């Protein structure tokens, strides 16, 4: 998958849980051998994500 990428933008009002749960295996596939680093970054950033729009 050379050059494969994905970007997803949401707002705090977006109920993305079900969508992201469905797409998680595809995101992991895109991450390849970087999947563990991707998951660690997501965990580290989670507390810093806004709960409401600025």
Describe the structure.
This protein is mostly helical. The chain has helices spanning 17-31, 35-45. The radius of gyration is 13 Å and the shape is globular. It starts with 16 loop residues before the first helix and ends in a 9-residue tail after the last helix.
Count of β-strands: 0
Chain-averaged pLDDT: 82
Low-pLDDT segments: none
Largest sheet: none
- SS class: mainly alpha
Strand content: under 5%
Gyration radius, in Å: 13 Å
In percent, how helical is the residue content? 40-55%
Give the SSE string: HH
Shape: globular
Keywords:
48% helix, 2 helices, 54 residues, mainly alpha, 0% strand, single chain
Give the helices and strands, then pairings.
Layout: H1 17-31, H2 35-45
Quickly describe the structure.
The protein has 54 residues and is an all-alpha fold.
């Amino acid at each position: 998958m050379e050059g494969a990428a994905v970007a997803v933008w949401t707002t705090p009002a977006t109920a993305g849980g079900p969508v992201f749960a469905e797409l998680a295996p595809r995101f992991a596939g895109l991450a390849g051998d970087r999947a563990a680093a991707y998951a660690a970054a997501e965990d580290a950033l989670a507390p810093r994500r806004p709960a409401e729009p600025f």
